[in-house]
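Researcher: If convenient, please comment on what follows.
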Amino acid sequence: MKTATVSKTYEISTDGRTVWVNGPEGCVARFSKRGMEVPAPECAGGQLSRASGTLQDWKYFQEALQRMGIKIDDSFQPAGLTE
């Protein structure tokens, strides 16, 4: 399990297949080849859930978290994502 604390508030963890972003309120975002949940103020309920598994989805996940001030580098990218 790889873990990094990216601020006093958020921690990123991965087992190589799934990435979790945890904050004081629990899991705030998750990404795997089977799906992702990420904060999205433009969506009803403020959360976007959808199937994923592509590099484009990974970039979207990174960008959505960057808007929250959370930077996830590519070393956390799950293995086996498709173009």
